[in-house]
Amino acid sequence: MASTARKQLRIESMHNRVTPEEWQARIDLAACYRLLDIYEMSDMAANHISARVPGEDGAFLINPYGMLYEEITASSLIKVDYDGNILARPGYGDFEYGVNRAGFVIHSAIHKARHETDCVIHTHTWPGMAVSSLECGLLPMNQTSMRFVQVGYHEYKGVVLDLAMQDELVADLGGHNALILRNHGLLTTGNTIPEAFNAMHRLELSCKAQLAALSTGQPLRPVPDDVLQATYMNYQPQTRRPYGVMEWPALLRKLDRISPGYDA
């Protein structure tokens, strides 16, 4: 039987079609996609990470629905507005990619409501889905998870396809930078792309640690509330440098070694 010819993915360069500031945002966002895949937080072509377009109010970048995270490049990202209109996208060769509807609904809601937020990350990892399905939610049982003492929760009401869900989603996120979508997954935000990635990486570790501890069947060691609150405050922006600043250059060097091409 003759094999079916594989369609070719040929991504048109966007480098000369955008501002230098947007191009840098595209590079960092593409890097974030690659890093989520490397750290096993991707879900084939599902899920999404978005970034606000610098100097362009009402526009953000998001992945083309159908590409794997390991394939994402700076040029492959699609620019959309808060109404879902595609403002710019490259040619993809034999493919005609668009934007995932649920991704648009979730990300446009947060970018529209929180103008200080540059990046939003949403995942469906097995630790995140497991903790989101537990009645207890995320437990502040170790130093890393104490960073999320104040985390938002959003009740599951079906796949997020309806714009009517946006107000409730934003209200449940509140002023937090992390949201647990009940029976669904995890979401983090950041004033920068590195900050949002740092938050998701730590939230994912917190979920893994909780599941590992609960699986032993042994009692959890409680931490006094005053210690929980003091530790939480030590993680807040007013008491420490912004997250992601120190490790992001090192993470980009890691990508240059093992997953080059994200900046094309």
UniProtKB/TrEMBL annotation:
<dbReference type="InterPro" id="IPR001303">
    <property type="entry name" value="Aldolase_II/adducin_N"/>
</dbReference>
<feature type="domain" description="Class II aldolase/adducin N-terminal">
    <location>
        <begin position="27"/>
        <end position="211"/>
    </location>
</feature>
<dbReference type="GO" id="GO:0051015">
    <property type="term" value="F:actin filament binding"/>
</dbReference>
<dbReference type="GO" id="GO:0005856">
    <property type="term" value="C:cytoskeleton"/>
</dbReference>
<comment type="similarity">
    <text>Belongs to the aldolase class II family.</text>
</comment>
<dbReference type="InterPro" id="IPR051017">
    <property type="entry name" value="Aldolase-II_Adducin_sf"/>
</dbReference>
<dbReference type="Pfam" id="PF00596">
    <property type="entry name" value="Aldolase_II"/>
</dbReference>
<protein>
    <submittedName>
        <fullName>Ribulose-5-phosphate 4-epimerase/fuculose-1-phosphate aldolase</fullName>
    </submittedName>
</protein>
<dbReference type="InterPro" id="IPR036409">
    <property type="entry name" value="Aldolase_II/adducin_N_sf"/>
</dbReference>
